[in-house]
Write a structure and sequence with these properties.
It is a single chain. The protein has 14 helices and 7 strands. It has a 7-stranded mixed β-sheet with strand order 1-3-2-4-5-6-7, with helices on both faces. The radius of gyration is 23 Å and the shape is elongated. The chain starts with a strand and ends in a 41-residue tail after the last helix.
Length: about 425
């Protein structure tokens, strides 16, 4: 099964099989979104904007605020195929647990796909909601620009051919189009936006990365041969700290993208946990747009073996900004490159639990990160090396790295 918590407008929304992405903050926004779900038409109109893409083979569940009726959070699940009662029960339990945990007392659901896939999950939601104190105000099946109510009729149907609909002229569509990014054709288009560069650009990045590796190795060798007191890796890490800090400042000031050789050097240096954690500590939400551009650029340019750090930082910033879909596709990329990368595993766990973006607090300051890496750790293993991959025990907190990003925050469940 696939669970994904996706975010409401203005963010986009997204692992494959059974995945989750972040949701909206628990607390009502300072300036409430004027769009409410008050009809079937408005529900159908806003779903693509809540997700950021046109859903397919998905069950979308939307929790609304008990007082204002405004959207609180949006969850998207892959439809189990083939249908399986245990998968339907698991998705239903997860959705209801997140909704009630975030104090949503009413919800809407729309299943996008054929009846044989949507109906079992719709029936499970309809049956389980009342005992949890959750009012399902509507459950739809949607396919080929037609919808069927699975709530009023108690089954997939009502009208044999469904009811045709168009959202192009709906007021909600106009409001959301004016205030947010365009709706993508599907989650695949979103994934493509963070996919590795291919063709000539990808080959150029591979060459640049090899040169960056050689440069890092040369610096280590020269430092070791010079007899300097400071450990060789520490000197290389210092160069990485400076390079990453300058790149962050550059994207904040001008947005001018890094060059291929610069990107290669940054991705190589970010494999040092000291460098990555310093970058993590600098993710001030006041500069979210700049940070999203930076980590997207580096995630796309990173070659195999160097993807997890920039992709995980992209996921954190996306979650921080309320963009659940982007957070999940970034984590997909990180974990595809290294399934045991602890930062990506941690973020997936936190995000999948329904933790809202308000919990994406910076765990440390850059100064605290520096203090956490004592002199005695500089030669304490390959995970501190500038050109060595992270190798932390996924079952532990790891020797390095900031604490849990939601440390000290209440459990959303």
């Amino acid at each position: 099964m696939a669970d994904e918590l996706d975010t409401p407008h203005p963010a986009l929304a997204g692992p494959a099989g059974t995945h989750l992405a972040p949701c909206t903050p628990l607390e009502p926004p300072a300036e409430p979104d004027p769009v409410r779900i008050d009809s079937t038409a408005s529900l159908l109109a806003i779903v693509p904007y809540l997700l950021g893409f046109e859903p397919a083979n998905s069950m979308v569940v939307i929790g609304t605020h008990p007082c204002t009726g405004q959207v609180m959070l949006t969850l998207r699940y892959d439809l189990p195929d083939p249908p399986d009662p245990q998968d339907a029960a698991g998705i239903t339990a997860h959705a209801i647990g997140i909704l009630t945990g975030q104090h949503a007392r009413s919800a809407f659901a729309a299943g996008y796909g054929p009846g044989r896939l949507v109906t079992p999950l719709a029936a499970a939601l309809r049956a389980a909601a009342p005992s949890a104190g959750l009012e399902m105000r509507e459950i739809l099946r949607v396919q080929d620009k037609r919808y069927w109510s699975c709530l009023r009729t108690g089954h997939d149907g009502g009208v044999a051919g469904g009811t045709p609909f168009s959202t192009a002229s709906h007021l909600a569509t106009a409001l959301l189009t004016a205030g947010g990014p365009r709706v993508l054709a599907g989650r695949e288009e979103l994934a493509a936006a963070v996919a590795a560069l291919g063709g000539e650009a990808g080959e150029a990045m591979a060459r640049a990365t090899r040169r960056a590796e050689q440069h890092a190795a040369r610096l280590i060798r020269q430092a070791a041969e010079s007899g300097q007191k400071a450990p060789a890796r520490r000197l290389v890490a210092d160069a990485g700290l400076d390079a990453v800090a300058r790149a962050i400042g550059r994207y904040r000031r001008s947005g001018r993208p890094v060059t291929g050789p610069e990107a290669a050097w940054l991705t190589v240096e970010l494999r040092d946990l000291r460098v990555r954690d310093d970058a993590w500590a600098r993710m001030d939400p006041a500069h979210t747009a700049a940070h999203l551009r930076l980590w997207t650029d580096l995630t796309r340019r990173a070659r195999p073996g160097y993807v997890p750090a920039p992709a995980s930082l992209l996921a954190f910033v996306a979650w921080q900004s309320g963009d659940g879909a982007l957070a999940n596709v970034a984590l997909d990329r990180a974990l595809a490159d290294d399934p045991q990368y602890s930062m990506a595993m941690l973020l997936r766990q936190v995000i999948s639990s329904g933790a809202p973006p308000s919990m994406a607090r910076l765990p440390m300051t850059p100064e605290q990160v520096a203090d956490s890496y004592g002199e005695g750790e500089d030669d304490a293993g390959s995970d501190a090396g500038a050109i060595s991959p992270e190798r932390e025990d996924p079952g532990s907190s790891g020797r390095h790295g900031p604490p849990h990003p939601a440390a000290g925050a209440p459990n959303p469940d």
